[in-house]
Automatic annotation (TrEMBL):
Top-level taxonomy: Bacteria, Bacillati, Actinomycetota, Actinomycetes, Kitasatosporales
Pfam families the UniProt entry points to: Lactamase_B, Rhodanese
PANTHER family cross-referenced by the UniProt entry: PERSULFIDE DIOXYGENASE ETHE1, PERSULFIDE DIOXYGENASE ETHE1, MITOCHONDRIAL
All copies of domain Rhodanese, residue ranges: 261-352, 365-451
Native species: Streptomyces corchorusii
Gene3D superfamilies from the UniProt entry: Rhodanese-like domain (3.40.250.10), Ribonuclease Z/Hydroxyacylglutathione hydrolase-like (3.60.15.10)
InterPro entries to which the protein is assigned, alphabetical: Metallo-B-lactamas, Mito_Persulfide_Diox, POD-like_MBL-fold, Rhodanese-like_dom, Rhodanese-like_dom_sf, RibonucZ/Hydroxyglut_hydro
GO biological process, alphabetically ordered: glutathione metabolic process; hydrogen sulfide metabolic process
Domain of life: Bacteria
Protein name listed in UniProt: MBL fold metallo-hydrolase
Keyword vocabulary terms for this entry: Hydrolase, Metal-binding
Signal peptide: none
GO MF: hydrolase activity; metal ion binding; sulfur dioxygenase activity
Amino acid sequence: MFFVDTMELEGLGNRSYLAGGRHTAVAVDPPRDIDRVLAAAARRGVRISHVVETHLHNDYVTGGPELARLTGAAYLVPAGAHVSYARVPVADGDVAEVDAGLALRAVATPGHTPHHTSYVLEDGGRPVAAFTGGSLLIGTVGRPDLVEPRLTERLARAQHASAHRLAAELPDETPVLPTHGFGSFCSSAQAAGDATTIGEEKAANAALTTDVDSFVTRLLAGLDDVPAYYTHMGPANAAGPAPVDLTPPPVADAEEIAARLAAGEWVVDLRSRIAFAAGHVAGSFNFEADGKVATYLAWMIPWGKPVTLLAETPEQLAAAQRELVRVGIDRPGAAATGAPDRWVPEGDRPASFPRSTFAGLAERGTDGVVVLDVRRASERAAGHIEGSVHIPVHQLHQRIGEVPAGTVWVHCAGGMRAAIAASLLDAAGRDVVAVDDGFAAAAGAGLTVVTG
């Protein structure tokens, strides 16, 4: 008897796993907020005997060292990963006994990183699950360009070989359980579904259906932007992250919020883009709690700059704190909950800006306004509004002076990134209209969409 529990990290687009038997279990690629893993083990009534990492992560801070310390578990890390803390170095073929008849076998699968290691869970010697980390994903593989540019092509070729090794050594019915691929920028493409097996990947994954040269060419051509905060994740994971503090931050009143803005700190409003546009603290930025707040805030904020969080409810604030510690933004300087009329000094009124749709833009016409596209270059290449200006949202705070004069109609693919951009422009004193609409509606609204 064995079990595998999946823990979704939706904001970052990753998964972590707890797998085990009747008495003991192993945690695979745990998040930094390890209370979720401990709660899962408690529900199962098992002791965590092993904590394993498939690789040193580039997109989040691990909870592995702290989870191993608290549980007394053996901490298994690939031998090739250079870390500054005690761990059990894992080499290809090493086997760890998890529970009676249940074992975990290490399989070297370089590609996402040079030291990447997958783990095969075996029940009575029979493979029952493969934890593939950033190696073989659902319909794709982990990107090979996050370590060192000179290694990228070599690692891409290694990804192809590693995928073929897993496919050759494991039965077709073996479930493939990756860490990346569900929205994480560590994936070379979005996962093609929610679950898969070795057999399904043999039929559909380009790493297993194309020759190595064709695969590498296509893989390298499709690589997208790398979030800036990734630079800090590897070193944090190699050094051994500190425990997290998820207690509520100090409460800020209107005067303190104004003082923090005046000092150049970031004040981040977590409410919906609809609520933010209708009324907000002038100078604050809108990163929706229901969006990819950790990814985009960590990508855009100058690293180490203090942040104050404004939330509708304590629950919204707590959820955002949890997401942010996963990417190394540990403690907000202050926070407030409620509504903007409580966050502005007495006598002041909240700021606002209009929202619209692509139909609204078409009705207004593009003459005399700036149409700003804040999607990534790969998205824009597939189609963009004729005459629009392009600055990806993650570059806008550094390039805001490049936005031409005039009222700015800002759009993305669905509305969330346009809201971030609109808040940055509004804070800079620009007249802005946030296009809260899917880009697929642009052509149908009568706007001229061109490619290239």
